Amino acid sequence: MGQQQLLLIILGVIIVGIAIAVGLSMFTAQSVGAQRDAIISDITNLAATAYQHRIRPASMGGGGGAYDITNGGAVFVIPTRLITNENGIYSLPVAVSENLVTFRGTSRDNVADYVEGAYDENGRLVGGFTLAGKFQ
Questions:
Q1: How far apart are CA 46 and CA 119, in angstroms?
Q2: What is the pTM of this model?
Q3: Residue 105 forms beta bridges with which residues?
Q4: Whole-angstrom Cα distance, residue 55 to residue 48?
C-alpha cells in the first residue's frame, strides 16, 4: 500500500472514533435528562398526594387543612409504596410544616444527583425545582 492509502485509513479510523465518542456523549446526556424528568414527574405526583392529604378532614385520617398536626390531623408522610421506584428514591428532606412540604427525589445511580421541590398550602410549586449533580 502507498502512503496515501495508509493516511486515508488512519483518517477514517480517527473519524469513526470521534463519531462513536460523540454518539456516546449524546446518549448519556439524553439518559440523564430522561431520569431528571421522570423524577420531577414523580415529585409532582407526590405533591398531589400530599395536597389530597392536606384537604382531607382530620376525622377521615387527613391533615384537616395542614400538612402537619397543626389542626389536629395526621402529619403527611410519603406512602411506603411511593418511597422508591425505578426512577429514584423519594424523601422529605425538610420537616413538614402547616403550609409547606418539600420533596427530594434522588437518583438511584448517584446520591449526589437529586431534584427538590417545595409545595405551598394550595399544592403549588414554590419558586422552582432545585437541581443538583448531573441534573443541573
A1: 10
A2: 0.83
A3: 90, 115
A4: 11
Question: Do residues 36 and 115 lie in contact, with contact meaning Cβ atoms separated by under 8 Å?
Answer: yes
pLDDT tens profile 89-112: 999 999 999 999 999 999 998 999
How do residues 119-133 score in pLDDT, each as one tens digit?
999 999 999 999 999
Residue 118 has pLDDT above 90, yes or no: yes
| Burial class (CB within 10 angstroms; exposed 0-12, middle 13-18, buried 19+) of 77 | exposed
Neighbouring C-beta atoms of residue 53, cutoff 10 Å: 21
Max CA pair span of the chain: 89
92's enclosing H/E stretch is: none
**Rounded CA separation 134/115 (Å):** 10
Residue pair 134/32 in contact (Cβ under 8 Å)? The answer is yes
Q: How far apart are CA 129 and CA 63, in angstroms?
A: 25
Q: Which three cell numbers stand for residue 91?
A: 424523601
What are the residue boundaries of the structural domains of the chain, listed by start?
36-135
- Cβ atoms of 65 and 71 within 8 Å: the answer is yes
